[in-house]
Specification:
about 180 residues; alpha/beta; 6-stranded mixed beta sheet; 3 helices; binds inosinic acid
Length: about 180
């Protein structure tokens, strides 16, 4: 599929696939045994989860969580709410949260608090993208696919107004959202 004119490719599908496979190998090596539960954050992380899960050559199980953040626009505002909770218990399990992008850190900072209260054996984060320059809340991301500059990106699950999720490459949205929290 040709890119629409309003986007510029940043990370090609080939680079994504190579990196995700590496991450999967690393994760499999880091969790040699015991149950491993991957928790993907809807909806953006679904494409990443689908490739990552298949790259982790060991037994895993999956669950999903929905999060809404409110504010001026599509990025986080500081108010976070769970819109879909897990279907399963995580007490005593190694849990890996699978997220598309860490931006201000507000979403994952909140989510990790919620999940820690359920007493998992361990809790780590795998994020495909990280924009460290935008961080407001601290988040410890164990596995990062790519660090990217402060630009609004779409594709490979990431959206703007629910569009562009199905682009194979990660692309910068030219003239991206004007207003974003600091
Ligand atoms: P945070 O709470 O600011 O870290 O934001 C996390 C969420 O904001 C992500 O899961 C995305 O849904 C959204 N987000 C942040 N930056 C981008 C971007 O560049 N493109 C698309 N969505 C983004």
């Amino acid at each position: 599929m040709a890119h629409p004119p309003e986007v510029r490719p940043l990370i090609s599908s080939d680079r994504i696939q190579t990196r995700v496979a590496e991450m999967g190998r690393q994760i499999a090596a880091d969790y040699p045994d015991g149950p491993l539960r991957l928790i993907a954050i809807l909806k953006g992380a679904c494409f990443f989860l689908s490739d990552l899960a298949r790259s982790i050559q060991r037994d895993i199980s999956l669950d999903f969580m929905g999060i809404a953040s409110y504010g001026r626009n599509k990025t986080s505002s500081g108010e976070v709410r769970v819109t879909k909770d897990l279907d399963t218990e995580i007490a005593g399990l190694d849990v890996l949260v699978v997220e598309d992008i860490v931006d201000t850190g507000i979403t994952l900072n909140y989510l990790c608090d919620v999940l820690q209260q359920r007493r998992p054996r361990s809790l780590r984060i795998a994020a495909l993208l990280d924009k460290p320059s935008r961080r407001i809340k601290p988040v410890d991301v164990a596995y990062v696919g790519f660090e990217i500059p402060d630009e609004f990106v779409v594709g490979y699950g990431l959206d703007y107004g629910e569009r562009y999720r199905n682009l194979r490459d990660i692309c910068v949205l030219l003239e991206g959202p004007a207003e974003r929290p600091a």
